[in-house]
Amino acid sequence: MMSIPNVRVKRQLKGVLGYKTKLNDFLHNGGCKMKFNCILLVSLFIATLSGCEKADDELTLLKEKAESGDVIAQYNLGCAYAEGDGTPVDLVQAVKWFRRAADSGDVDAQYNLAVMYDDGDGVDEDNEEAVKWYTAAAKQGDQFSQYNLAVMYDEGTGVGQDYSKALHWYRQAAEQGDRDAQYSIGLLYETGDVGESDGVEAYAWYTLAAKNGELNAKEKCIQLEEGFTEEQLKSAKSRCSEIMFLYGID
In the predicted model, what is the mean pLDDT of residues 161-184? Predict the structure, then answer.
């Protein structure tokens, strides 16, 4: 029987679109999370249409707005330094600007700052500080932060290991459709980290994760089915239906 690893991979930085991207891409790109306000968007749009603005000018505009206290510009400037968009990569500056925005309550900046502390990018690695900022963003409903914070509690990194809190934050992310969180909930129930091992509950969460595209979850379901009695399988499928109804999965 193939062994399925109990792997929980944390999410990385949220990105920002390049400043030279056309307006249509700003509005319709689904892969990155670009923040903008009306003034900055108009400036970028004019620059795109006229072709007279260079990357340096655009970065200067962004810096001016960031220095003036514009939280959106602070976040975008942090992304620019983190990704080397219009400027050489400078992770120390990225941390600086993410912190400015994070201190003002920007949820994406809080998440990115947490990741940088978590990984030791642009700042000394500090797992406790990472937990602090993941928590701040998670409490604002950020799915990525909820998942990463759950992993921290699950592994006891930067905070005392606490499977109950891990389960809480996995559930928060799972409720937003996070398949990795759904899979991780299955692991917690299967291994008995949140009480006695519960294959039925684990199967239900693995099924939900599998329906959302988590490949390892499909294998987990197959393995559990092989060890179920007929009654257990019936209970597991019934529990699946309950959870899928709760989360609106067909």
Answer: 96
Place of tokens 């990704």: 83
pTM summary value: 0.82
Tokens of 79: 């992304």
For 122-162, how does the pLDDT look when each residue is reduced to its tens digit (9 = 90+)?
999 999 999 999 999 999 999 999 999 999 999 999 999 99
Q: Which long-range contacts (CB under 8 A, 24 or more apart) does 129-132 make?
A: 129/158, 130/158, 131/158, 131/159
If you search the block for the tokens 């519960």, which residue do you land on? 198
Q: How many CA atoms does the CB half-sphere of 216 hold within 13 Å?
A: 16
Tokens matching residue 57: 């000018």
The answer to whether 185 and 171 have CB atoms below 8 angstroms apart is: yes
Task: Give the C-alpha separation, 64 to 106, whole Å.
Answer: 19
14-125 placed in CATH 1.25.40: yes
